[in-house]
Design goal:
200 residues; alpha+beta; Elongation Factor Tu (Ef-tu), domain 3; seven-stranded antiparallel sheet; two-stranded antiparallel ribbon; 9 strands; extended
């Protein structure tokens, strides 16, 4: 019988969230990402042709940063502010992180935009990400009496800060988790053959 990793049903569920590190704001919503969460990491390989040979040497040129992409629906139906209060939090992520006092300082606009702490839906410990993209698509016909949107799709692209110390914790968890994955999958394969039961 395959290894059962289930435990009794939780009485709660961890909501979707990210934490704006510069403005020290927790961003969450009752809706969750509506799209598949894309989780990509490039591996750079270069082919070096060899005259007369039937193949090329392959040289490893390094790896890119992990990149997370998803779309979050932001819905708040009322006849006053609509969903603008939550959208203001997302707008902060694409502006320089100068805080309250920096609004009145001339040189604060040269600071980078905030980083965020994020982990939901990607199977890792909470990690620090650069915010590469935050774009809004306000849905047609979902505007209230005061002209504010009530349904907006927010597209995110986050780039992992792989030089941050938090990433070392994830690397350790990845090594340990991969050993556990090898053991459970080997056990499931063996028991499925001996019991004629499918492991899925």
């Amino acid at each position: 019988m395959p290894v059962n990793l289930n435990i009794p049903k939780f009485k709660f569920g961890l909501p979707w969230f990210m934490f704006d590190l510069s403005n020290r704001q927790l961003i969450t919503s009752i809706t969750i990402p509506m799209s598949d969460i894309q989780d990509n990491k490039d591996v750079f390989l270069t082919e070096q042709p060899i005259p007369g040979a039937a193949f090329s040497h392959v040289h490893a040129g390094g790896m890119g940063n992990r990149k997370i992409q998803f779309t979050l629906p932001v819905v708040k139906r009322n006849n006053t502010v609509g969903n603008m209060l939550l959208l203001r939090q997302f707008m902060n992520l694409r502006e320089p992180s100068f805080g309250w006092r920096g609004i009145f300082k001339a040189n604060e606009q040269f600071k980078p935009n905030p980083k965020v702490l994020f982990s939901w839906g990607v199977g890792t410990v909470p990690l620090i990400y650069f915010v590469k993209k935050v774009s809004f698509k306000h849905k047609q016909g979902m505007t209230n009496n005061l002209g504010n949107p009530t349904f907006t799709e927010v597209d995110f692209e986050l780039w992992l800060d792989e030089a941050h110390p938090y990433n070392k914790t994830e690397m350790m968890m990845r090594r340990l988790g991969s050993l556990g994955g090898m053991a459970t999958q080997a056990y499931d394969m063996i028991t499925s053959y001996t019991s004629n039961e499918r492991p899925y």
